[in-house]
Design brief:
Blueprint (H helix, E strand, L loop, with lengths): L5 H11 E4 L2 E5 H12 L6 H14 L3 E3 L13
Parallel strand pairs: 2-3
Antiparallel strand pairs: 1-2
Helix pairs in contact: 1-2, 1-3, 2-3
Amino acid sequence: MGQFEMIDLVSVVDACASDRAAGHCVSMAKAVEELRVLTGDFVSPDEAVANALSAVALGRGCAVLFDEQPGADILLMP
């Protein structure tokens, strides 16, 4: 998480958290893209970005959906 600002990570997690019957859920596909746009960082590996975001999301009590896989775009996240 050292290469990303905590305020950016928290802002993205809060913006991407969707309410579900089971609680808040954060799509990593959406969150990674949002963090890249917010910070302008398009070179960090997806894994590093997703790891930093998921640690913050879990710390904030959110479930994490690792949907950065081929075909993941068929998942519908409101």
